[in-house]
């Protein structure tokens, strides 16, 4: 496997941004490979999945690109007072990496996954753009933005999301996005969610799971004894990769 650390100028962010990419080093001429957008948590960056898990080793079993952007503490959102990280991740970044690398643009070859804040980001991509993603996975996701204000200090929460309490259908609320997706009539991506039962975000995960169930959206959920920590996420990583690639095969057959 090849690991690439790349800096480039983002027009959306108005500044230089960083991304790490893992890819097979024997890509053949004309070959287009699947892509997984692997998203980091609130206190991490584009390299943390590589530093804390066996991701590179696990990827030796698959032929795909893994793209890991750095979005700082933005919660993958177009911030109320800050940069447009949602537009960056959902629009600009895919165009840039597909222009530079042999990445497929087919829905059945496109996935998103992430932990904590990144789990939120992965579900947001899948629910906002179901026509683009075959599958998405959340490790211990911070899935309910209305319950996480205590993770921030000062005005940071309001700087990201603006007035959440006063907005019934907030653009960054996964519960609202799930409502819209369920009513859209579009084929939805395969969804996977896991969380440790001792995780401080466990109640938020159960609340999101129950909401998805009430909408009739299919989602694979797993829980085990575990905290909000890398040992749990590293343990679940092979299962998530298996789920994502398995969903791709099913999608390719049905389409």
Tell me about this structure.
With 255 residues, this protein is of the alpha/beta class. The chain has eight helices and eight strands. An eight-stranded mixed sheet has the order 1-2-4-3-5-6-7-8, sandwiched between helices. The model has no long low-confidence stretch (mean pLDDT 95).
Mean pLDDT: 95
Number of helical segments with 4 or more residues? 8
**Structural class given helices, strands, pairing?**
alpha/beta
Low-confidence parts: none
Largest sheet: 8 strands, mixed
* DSSP strand content: 15-25%
The H/E string reads: EEEHHEHEHEHHEHEH
Alpha carbon gyration radius = 17 Å
Largest beta sheet: strand ordering = 1-2-4-3-5-6-7-8
- Determine the fraction of residues in helical runs and give it as a percent range: 25-40%
The tally of strands reads 8
Write the layout of secondary structure elements.
Elements lengths: L1 E9 L4 E9 L11 E5 L8 H5 L2 H5 L5 E5 L15 H16 L9 E6 L1 H12 L6 E5 L16 H6 L12 H10 L6 E7 L5 H13 L5 E5 L5 H25 L1
Parallel strand pairs: 3-4, 3-5, 5-6, 6-7, 7-8
Antiparallel strand pairs: 1-2, 2-4
Helix pairs in contact: 4-6
């Amino acid at each position: 496997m090849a690991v690439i650390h790349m800096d480039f100028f983002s027009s959306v962010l108005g500044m230089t941004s960083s991304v790490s990419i893992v890819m097979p080093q024997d890509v053949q001429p004309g070959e287009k490979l699947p892509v997984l957008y692997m998203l980091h948590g609130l206190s991490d960056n584009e390299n943390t999945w590589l530093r804390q898990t066996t991701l590179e080793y696990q990827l030796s079993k698959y032929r795909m690109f893994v793209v890991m952007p750095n979005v700082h503490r933005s919660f993958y959102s177009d911030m109320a007072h800050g940069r447009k990280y949602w537009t960056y991740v959902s629009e600009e970044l895919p165009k840039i990496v597909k222009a530079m690398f042999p990445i497929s643009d087919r829905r059945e070859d496109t996935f998103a996954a992430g932990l904590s804040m990144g789990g939120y980001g992965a579900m947001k991509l899948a629910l906002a753009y179901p026509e683009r993603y075959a599958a998405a996975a959340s490790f211990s996701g911070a899935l309910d933005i209305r319950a996480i204000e205590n993770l921030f200090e000062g005005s940071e929460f309001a700087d990201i999301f603006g007035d959440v309490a006063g907005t019934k259908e907030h653009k960054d609320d996964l519960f609202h996005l799930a409502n819209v997706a369920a009513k859209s009539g579009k084929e939805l991506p395969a969804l996977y969610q896991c969380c440790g039962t001792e995780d401080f975000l466990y109640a938020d995960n159960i609340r999101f799971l129950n909401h998805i169930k009430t909408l009739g959206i299919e989602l694979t959920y797993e829980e085990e004894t575990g905290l909000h920590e890398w040992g749990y996420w590293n343990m679940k990583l092979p299962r998530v990769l298996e789920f994502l690639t398995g969903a791709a095969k099913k999608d390719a057959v049905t389409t």
